[in-house]
Amino acid sequence: MNAREMELPKRYDPQHSEDRWYGHWMARGYFHSEPDEREPFTIAIPPPNVTGVLHMGHMLNNTIQDVLVRRARMQGKNACWVPGVDHA
Fold it and tell me: How many structural domains are present in the chain?
């Protein structure tokens, strides 16, 4: 691989990555949730009440929730985490 192939675009285009990964996740059923006999684990996600610019605190909140849900899944729980759902 040469330096030209390793260059990053000056402006990030999320569509390039999102199209690829979203299809991958859909094909493997990663968004599917099925009630079963496992102990349930759910986090009610309070979206940030954004009155200004998003900041690192918003990212930290989502990261902590992600870690907790992944841990619950590794413990065999039926973990459901639906980010981006508004409570209003």
Answer: 1
pTM to 2 decimals?
0.57
Residue 20 within a domain: no
Domain range for residue 86? 38-88
Query: Per residue in 26-71, pLDDT tens?
Result: 998 877 778 899 999 988 766 655 666 777 877 788 888 889 999 9
CA–CA dist 47, 58 (Å, integer): 9
In this structure, which long-range contacts are made by residues 6-11, counting pairs with CB atoms below 8 Å and at least 24 apart in sequence? none
